[in-house]
Design a protein that fits this description.
The protein is globular and about 75 Å long. Strands 9-6-5-4-3-2-1-10 form an eight-stranded parallel sheet. Helix 1 packs across helix 15 and helix 13 packs across helix 14. It contains 21 helices and 27 strands. Strand 26 and strand 27 form a beta hairpin. The protein is an alpha/beta fold.
């Protein structure tokens, strides 16, 4: 269908039909769905007529090839112009085969792995009938109290940008029109949703334009540069205006400055939420501000349907704004090939063959193993074959390790830690006990745990947060493990048995009472369908841990937000002439996080040679080359993540103490040595100045290379301009 045909199609549409294309409804509204007609509560209050449903442009939350085909066929029978539905859903970290949550994937420091996970998710979702996924979420996160940090890849704009590109490539491929096994991606949440005050979901965001551009916008831009088809608005305010009604953010920045001409969709209910935000008096004003801001699709509120006709009639909204939005929606449907193939990839036979197949599960197991981070190891791991192991804790035999956004995943299908270890350990070597619930403990549970521990040579505790304690609306003021789990550690510690803690959670935790008492700690996050198998491989040494933290772990929640790329202040605590008291510090806890960005241990040791620079000066035409030799000095093959940071010593505005600019993941055999060379161009020294110009400054820089953001070697160079 040529572009002119799309214009002709819009011309044939009535105003009501056009506005209905801007409406996204949930599954129960649609004929052919199993849930059809089950419209109660908030959905009933939307006041949606059959005529609106017949012309609604998209549906969310529908999956399953036969279901999608039934709904699409019924819809096309009733749609006057034969315009197919867009089928959308949150396929965040897997469809049926669930991969580790994005924060865990960020800890793999392996964008290729992330791309493969998205490719598999797209394949499973597309044969099940889906066209669009509401992913990737690329919000920069610095506050672990916010439950949705599990959806982000971490606290660094460069690392987030690399993963944003990888996820978009995986979901969309390079031929979205021709490849029916791909999905259109929707980057979210635009913008700065991860900076909510107090780590509270849906909360206010207030920051300078310079900070927004320097830290929070790069990952969205990276996703769009990779060709991401859609953008979702954020729930929060940006410069005092809710994102969904923010014309400056959406039309001026996103569309005019960045040139984005794809579809902009609100988050669930966000158009009507302009009213409680206090920028719209009623639904009519909410519709007016959202359409003026450039929101094409209103998700699950009905402000557009009920009020855009009267706003057009009154001359307050030019119908051309509605035409633009409809054309963008129709253009996406065209790029997906829906006019020719309205069922697109929906295929019940392929669905049965491909969804949750062995190949996909193997990929999920590899991703889970590479995403886990070894936080501590006093020579306790890997477990030895002759040891008797007591596996204790609420997650020992739990399938609740998928994460909050595992919409179509099955906890029953998840490989538990108990199942994984039973497969790896010889008969009779594994003793299990629950010990406690996630947030409760009985005397019987404790007695069983003590009995199991006394019979064992080593204790493995499977602890953490259940999936309801993280994710959307999962903000927590106190980010320790629940008290019964800490009590379990305290009661087992006097047995003086080696103790290993495996953590399942969606955020960095306050690990006081865990890291100091355990002999080894493995951060497994929510590792997905094959999580228990991956954890067992790591605990037994079949796989060497290679994950590195993509978000700092605080010493205490009182430090939050805590992140590695902070400013120095005028009175830094570690200055050579620092006073004892009148410096930027806490009196009762350290300034530094408990575990820094980029941190992670291995079962082998890596040694670094002296860093070599190609020159002491660089210019815009002469990039700097940095070379370091890395050696596996241990007796086990392993992967090391070599990290490169810079510091601009004197900028026009203050600059961070460290900024990640490159990394390389190496697989080294025992005794193997490899030279790693990074090329640093002048472009990577640029930043946003006070006037928002994006350029570098001549002068002195630090270059730092090492195994994490704290453990680095430092050299200096000069930029000549």
């Amino acid at each position: 269908m040529a572009d002119q045909q799309l214009f002709s199609l819009v011309e044939r549409m009535t105003l009501e039909e056009k506005i209905a294309q801007l409406m996204q409804l949930a599954v129960p509204f649609f004929e052919g769905a199993e849930e059809s007609g089950q419209i109660t509560g908030p959905m009933e209050s939307l006041g949606i007529t059959d005529e609106v449903v017949r012309n609604s442009g998209s549906v969310l939350g529908l999956a399953g090839a036969e279901k999608v085909i039934a709904v699409q066929e019924a819809y096309l029978r009733n749609n006057r112009l034969g315009i197919p539905l867009l089928i959308m859903a949150d396929i965040v970290h897997g469809f049926k085969t669930i991969f580790p949550v994005p924060l865990a994937m960020g800890c793999s420091w392996d964008p290729g792995l992330a791309e493969r996970s998205a490719e598999i998710a797209a394949l499973e979702a597309s044969v099940s009938g889906l066209h669009v996924t509401f992913a990737p979420m690329v919000d920069l996160v610095r506050d672990p109290r916010w439950g949705r940090v599990m959806e982000s890849t971490g606290e660094d704009p460069y690392l987030n940008s690399e993963f944003a590109r990888a996820f978009v490539r995986g979901f969309q491929g390079n031929n979205l029109s021709g490849d029916v096994h791909r999905l259109a991606a929707c980057v979210k949440h635009f913008a700065a949703y991860g900076a909510g005050e107090g780590g509270r979901d849906y909360n206010t965001v207030d920051m300078s334009e310079r900070q927004l551009r320097e830290y929070y916008l790069p990952a969205y831009k990276a996703a769009l540069d990779e060709g991401c088809e859609m953008v979702m608005t954020a729930f929060n305010t940006v410069h005092g205006v809710p994102a969904t009604g923010n014309k400056r953010l959406m039309r001026d920045l996103l569309r005019s400055e960045w040139g984005f001409d794809g579809v902009l969709i609100s988050d669930w209910g966000a158009v009507k939420e302009l009213i409680p935000h206090g920028v719209a008096e009623d639904e009519a004003e909410a519709a007016l501000k959202a359409i003026q801001a450039g929101v094409d699709i209103e998700m699950m509120t009905s402000c557009y349907i009920h009020h855009l006709p009267e706003l057009v009639s009154a001359g307050r909204v030019d119908e051309s704004l509605i035409d633009e939005a409809v054309l963008r929606i129709l253009s996406l449907k065209k790029r997906l090939g829906l006019f020719e193939r309205p069922m697109r990839g929906a295929d019940p036979e392929a669905e049965r063959e491909l969804v949750f197949c062995d190949e996909h599960r193997h990929a999920a197991r590899e991703a889970a193993a590479k995403s886990c981070v070894l936080l501590k190891n006093n020579s306790v791991l890997p477990l030895q074959s002759e040891q008797r192991v007591a596996l204790i804790g609420p997650f020992a035999a739990s399938g609740d390790i998928l994460g909050p956004w595992s919409w179509t995943g099955s906890k029953e299908d998840a490989v538990t830690v108990e199942q994984g270890l039973r497969f790896k350990l010889s008969s009779g070597r594994l003793i299990t006990a629950e010990g406690c619930g996630v947030s409760s403990m009985t005397e019987q549970q404790l007695e069983e745990a003590l009995k199991a521990a006394k019979e064992a040579d080593v204790i493995v505790l499977a602890l953490g947060e259940d999936s309801e304690m993280s994710g959307e609306a999962g903000s927590r003021a106190f980010i320790t493990l629940p008290e019964p789990q800490l009590e379990l550690i305290r009661r087992l510690k006097p047995l003086q048995k080696p103790m290993v803690v495996v953590l399942f959670n969606g955020r960095p935790l306050d690990l006081n009472g865990v890291l100091d008492k355990a002999d080894a700690v493995l951060e497994a996050w929510y590792p997905g369908s094959e999580g228990g198998a991956a954890v067992a491989e790591l605990l037994t040494g079949e796989v060497n841990p290679s994950g590195r933290l993509s978000m700092s772990f605080p010493y205490s929640v009182g430090q939050v937000p805590v992140y590695y790329n902070h400013f120095n202040t005028g009175r830094p605590k570690d200055a050579p002439d620092a006073q004892e008291r009148y410096v930027s510090q806490y009196l009762d806890i350290p300034n530094e996080p408990l575990l820094p960005f980029g941190f992670g241990l291995s079962y082998t040791d890596f040694s670094y040679g002296k860093m070599k620079l190609s020159a002491e000066e660089m210019s815009p035409d002469e990039p700097l080359e940095i070379t370091v030799s890395v050696t596996n000095a241990g007796d086990m093959a392993g992967e090391e993540v070599v990290q490169l940071y810079i510091r601009d010593m004197s900028g026009e505005v203050v600059r961070p103490l460290k900024e990640l600019k490159a990394f390389r993941k190496l697989l080294l055999q025992p005794g193997e040595q490899q030279d790693v060379t990074f090329t640093l161009p002048e472009e990577q020294l640029r930043y946003h100045h006070s006037d928002l110009s994006f350029e570098s400054d001549a002068g002195q820089f630090c270059i730092m290379v090492g195994r994490n953001s704290q453990d680095t070697e430092t050299r200096h160079f000069k930029l000549r301009k």
